Amino acid sequence: MITYKEAGVNIEEGYKAVSMIKNHAKNTMNSFVLNNIGSFAAMVEIPSGYKNPVLVSGTDGVGTKLQVAFSMNKYDSFGIDCVAMCVNDILCHGAKPLFFLDYIACGKLESSVVADIVKGVSEGCLMADCALVGGETAEMPGFYKNGEYDIAGFAVGVVDKKDIINGKDIKEGDAIIGITSSGPHSNGYSLIRKLVEDLQIEIEGEKLGDILLKPTRIYVKPILNLLNKFKIKGMAHITGGGFFENIPRMMPKGYSAKIDKNSYEVPYIFKYLMEKGVDENHAYNTFNMGIGFVLCVDNDLKEQVIEELRLMGEEAYVIGSVISGGEGLCLE
């Protein structure tokens, strides 16, 4: 007789992992969650106050940033990245995140490592004010290398139908505001890993590996606060594809974004990567270049919005404006 454990799957270690991560999930629970971790499915009610609630969903992963984490033997922060990539996306349409689920896969499950990963996920959920209602941990020997893990997430939020942000009111002359990132966030790491080999070298007093592992910023709380005070016409999460792909996604047909690359100080990590051989256009088409989230507002509101963001501890700049014609981005 051959057992599941002899085939490479340790059920007991899986049970141990579940036991260790339950408290992390419990810390994120709110009054909208109707059952506990351990059921076959999670039940979450839509909060009151919405006249015509629309559910907004998003899913994403962390990508090859994970390889940097493995090299640095650090597993407790990329869970934040996974949450951020999902909740920042649904936020672009004005949705408040309600709940999050994760999927973690590995070759050989180590309960302490899974607990570290989920600790990061729960921290991200707390930052986004949403509940971690469940997930899946898959041990697949022979499919993943031992010591390596993959993670993906799924977020659901809610917005009143009348409050959906879809860029339809954007017009020529509107201001484009950029909110700073913490670094490369979770995009461009396949290129980054081609450019750099030594993660232990120091750049401006920090190890390169630590700079590259800074978690993706979660913009939920400041943006939801802004939405209560100002009319935000469009929003973009600067992820894969950088400025060129993501900023135009918030624009209606017939309008483009004109971006002034000298409107803010590009963080040194991006200059360092460009020095390694990435040309400027490719950099702006791959990385966030220090801007993680973008807003479009009426030009008359730009200073008020920036001041409100700064009062909340955010660094923000007017980085461009909307122009008529085309459907892309002009970098000046």
Automatic annotation (TrEMBL):
Residues 51-159 form the PurM-like N-terminal domain. It catalyses: 2-formamido-N(1)-(5-O-phospho-beta-D-ribosyl)acetamidine + ATP = 5-amino-1-(5-phospho-beta-D-ribosyl)imidazole + ADP + phosphate + H(+). Its EC number is 6.3.3.1. Keywords: ATP-binding, Cytoplasm, Ligase, Nucleotide-binding, Purine biosynthesis. GO terms for molecular function: phosphoribosylformylglycinamidine cyclo-ligase activity. Residues 171-327 form the PurM-like C-terminal domain. Pathway: Purine metabolism; IMP biosynthesis via de novo pathway; 5-amino-1-(5-phospho-D-ribosyl)imidazole from N(2)-formyl-N(1)-(5-phospho-D-ribosyl)glycinamide: step 2/2. It is found in: Cytoplasm. It holds the Pfam family AIRS_C. The keyword Cytoplasm applies. Belongs to the AIR synthase family. PANTHER family: TRIFUNCTIONAL PURINE BIOSYNTHETIC PROTEIN ADENOSINE-3, TRIFUNCTIONAL PURINE BIOSYNTHETIC PROTEIN ADENOSINE-3-RELATED. NCBIfam families: purM (TIGR00878). This is Phosphoribosylformylglycinamidine cyclo-ligase. The lineage of its organism: Bacteria, Bacillati, Bacillota, Clostridia, Eubacteriales.
